[in-house]
Design a protein that fits this description.
486 residues; alpha+beta; four-stranded antiparallel β-sheet; 23 strands; 16% helix; globular
Length: 486
């Protein structure tokens, strides 16, 4: 019998798993407790402290030089600062000092930036408690305080202020979000299940929300419905606009009160003669918003939750929030303040003008119309003082005035659609009748836009159906309920 040669069976050898350690990161040497707060002149301030930011390389950063990333992605400090920080080792990659400012960032890299952090002050007004139980705290957030640590804000945030008040081990869980400039009702979960339960209700649109806004001019009476889609045109600047190609959005508005200028109350003629020069009169004649005298208090019911939805819709309707630094700013949007504009292709110009705005810029319409703010231009927002920090040479800002800490937009009421709970706050001070005038000090049933929710909700953002106004008249979809200015 013949013998055959058999090749030995080759069994693939498994290589042992090799642990690849994560990139090195830098940690801040301390986390001060108690928090370094101090109260001064109605402001909550934070003493400067050292802090390290750590972030993984974002997709859009891959293959770019480290200095280019800092110079284009961050606006907090000038490019010269970032160049020096990279060269002296304040900015490192994977825990190691880079060879030059031209170092290319790769996927998986961790960028660390250690700096002497200067937080902007916020109002010293306490965070109000509307309701508290074993699961949830309902708060009245002050205007000007961000919810989470972000950007220049860390300890001066709702989360950190509440942690400082209740102890270092307490972990607040915000369930809804309000813009930094907006005040009003917020829900803080005490544990994950409670926060998830309420967040799910909000995401499923089972929660009714009502806001109060103060806008320029005489806002129309009756039920005003705006369903212009909203599109984000600059995430970096937080700019959104009414655009047909945006996301579906719908808001119901109803006027609570209108307050004419004090000089023309009760039909009286304005006091004194017009002191403007002919050039100034010609200039003002081209500024449509300057023809809107007085201001209105408006109840706002957003049926969708787009970023800046109420602010954008009020701007589109020709009655922007009177101290809105973005959407009521003529230097950004021009004489018409973009009233009725959903088609123009000037987004790049708007972005350019907004990005060049100094921190001292203000909403011009507010300064012109608001009789209670006649000294506004004398109290500009925080601005450079010309002084430098003795530790890090950072340019120092002056303190903001109270009017720069927020806008006239307040989340007044949140209610469960099923009727299980309903929380609301009183009207903010700026929504009350001005001295010498009469008006509602509370909201009324007659001006409650929530009564329209079921009727308007049936439209379900269907653009084929007409809108309905307070008199039952149907109007063409995607048009305002009155003739727009101009």
């Amino acid at each position: 019998m013949a013998l055959a040669t058999v090749e030995p069976l080759q069994i693939p050898r498994e290589e042992p798993d090799v642990f690849i350690p994560p990139p090195n990161i830098i940690t801040t040497p301390c986390d001060p407790w108690p928090r370094p707060y101090h109260l001064e002149d109605g402001l909550r301030k934070v003493y400067p402290y050292h802090f390290t930011y750590n972030t993984y390389c974002k997709q859009r950063w891959r293959g770019r030089e480290i200095l280019d990333i800092f110079a284009t992605e961050f606006r907090d400090r000038p490019q010269e600062y970032y160049k020096d920080a990279i060269e002296c080792g304040k900015v490192v990659i994977n825990g190691q000092k880079v060879s030059s400012v031209h170092e290319v960032v790769k996927n998986g890299d961790v960028i660390s930036h250690t700096l002497h952090r200067h937080e902007p002050p916020v109002t010293a007004q306490p965070i109000g408690i509307v309701h508290e139980d074993n699961d949830m705290i309902v708060i009245n957030k002050p205007a000007g305080v961000p919810v989470h640590p972000a950007g220049r804000y860390n300890y001066n945030s709702v989360v950190e202020i509440m942690r400082a008040e209740r102890g270092p081990g307490w972990n607040p869980l915000p369930c809804n979000r309000l813009d930094r400039l907006t005040s009003g009702v917020m829900f803080i979960g005490k544990h994950a299940k409670a926060a998830e339960r309420l967040s799910d209700q909000i995401m499923a649109r089972k929660v009714k929300k009502e806001y109060i806004a103060r806008v320029i001019g005489d806002f129309p009476e009756g039920n005003v419905i705006c369903d212009q889609p909203v599109m984000q045109v600059s995430p970096k600047l937080g700019l959104n606009r009414a655009r047909a190609s945006g996301k579906d959005a719908k808001t119901i508005f109803k006027r609570l009160a209108y307050y004419p200028p004090a000089a023309v109350t009760n039909g009286a003629e304005p006091k004194g003669q017009d002191q403007r020069s002919e050039k100034e009169r010609q200039r003002d004649s081209k500024m449509e918003w300057k023809g809107k005298e007085g201001y209105s208090i408006v109840r706002c019911l957003p049926l969708t939750g787009r970023t800046h939805q109420i602010r954008v819709h009020l701007q589109f309707l020709g009655h922007p929030i009177s101290n809105d630094p973005i959407y009521c700013n003529q230097r950004v949007f021009g004489p018409s303040l973009a009233a009725g504009d959903a088609l123009s292709d000037n987004d790049e110009d708007i972005i350019s003008r907004l990005s060049k705005m100094g921190k001292s810029e203000a909403a011009e319409a507010m300064a012109y119309h608001d009789e209670m703010m006649e000294e506004y231009n004398k109290r500009k927002a925080e601005k450079m003082t010309g002084e430098l920090c003795a530790v890090c040479d950072t340019p120092l800002y002056s303190d903001p005035g109270p009017q720069e800490l927020g806008i006239y937009l307040h989340a007044k009421r949140y209610a469960c659609q099923d009727g299980n709970w309903d929380y609301e706050t009183p009207l903010p001070v700026w929504a009350l009748p001005p001295p010498g005038m009469s008006g509602p000090a509370t909201t009324t049933t007659e001006t409650d836009p929530m009564a329209l929710v079921d009727e308007v909700g049936e439209l379900k953002l269907d653009k084929a159906k007409p809108k309905i106004n307070g008199t039952g008249d149907s109007l063409e979809q995607s048009k305002p309920l009155w003739v727009m200015p101009g």
